[in-house]
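Marked as duplicate of an earlier ticket. Keeping the data here for the record.
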Amino acid sequence: MKRKLLLIMPNFFDYPQAICEELEKMGGWGYEVDCFDDRPSTNGMVKAIIRVNKNLIGQYINRYFEKVMKTVRAKKYDVVFLISGQSLSFSEDMIQQIKDEQPQAKYVLYQWDSLKNFPYIEKIEPYFDKCYSFDKNDVATHENLKFLPLFYTRRYENIGNSKKREFQYDFCFVGTAHPKKYKFIQMMTRQLKEVYPNQFVYYFFPSRIVFFYRKLMNPELRHAHYSEFHFDPLAGKEMDRVFANSKCVLDSAQAGQIGLTIRVLEALGAKKKLITTNEDVVNYDFYREENIYVYDGHFDLKAPFFNSDYVEVENSVYEKYSLRNWLKEIIGE
């Protein structure tokens, strides 16, 4: 008989589906998973309000949470798993209500945003048996946190296994246009134009409201043009096509973040070269100077990165960052 798991996480690209599918396969018997978004709606207005002040739509959140609780009251879970980011709309009281209904469950928290960007999460950590973070700085200053980087899913593993050698794009960037990220990706694309002319860049905003708010409040976006941005995430099949047909992947961390973005791990999974602004990447066991270039504002075209082919990492290191191993660590299989 399958065990039961309650998963609460952001409805972000295809990650909920990938995580649910992997959980259903775990250990040969797997989990029966109930997955809920950590906010009441993916509507652009709701997303924007939650990021600014979720109390403004408190009643709307309460009604959504009550729908979640109808399912929670009807089940008996072995694990309650919360993946927390900046979109989390549930309060400490709501977490406590889940615990009151499911006292037998193991409670696990994973933080894929830095506490500097999302300090509220500290208030809900005491409700969990195990707490993980992708950010080394947060782990160093919070003894209840355990360090665990993000992961790559099977779709990127499949790209890596294809061993493609001819590419349509010299590099790609697909990601949310956080101000600092936008600034550095723009710098990279301009500086690489002569040596990497075939570029695929897809800046995403969760809503037009967020775009106009960021444009007004952040100097990095002051001169950005509306036409540069997309308000729908790149579809899964198109994302696969772009990644498979790119020689290299660009990445830039948010301001105040030392934890590796998921894009870094997906580049690893797809066996792609990577250019990133995150200097801490050199401290990871998969770092190879032939594969990864740390961008500090300028490029050294004589570096090994630009003058060698991709070098595959040891299989034990590669496998360590798969979603299946990530879940084994978190769920304790």
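See parent ticket for discussion. The chain has a mean pLDDT of 90.
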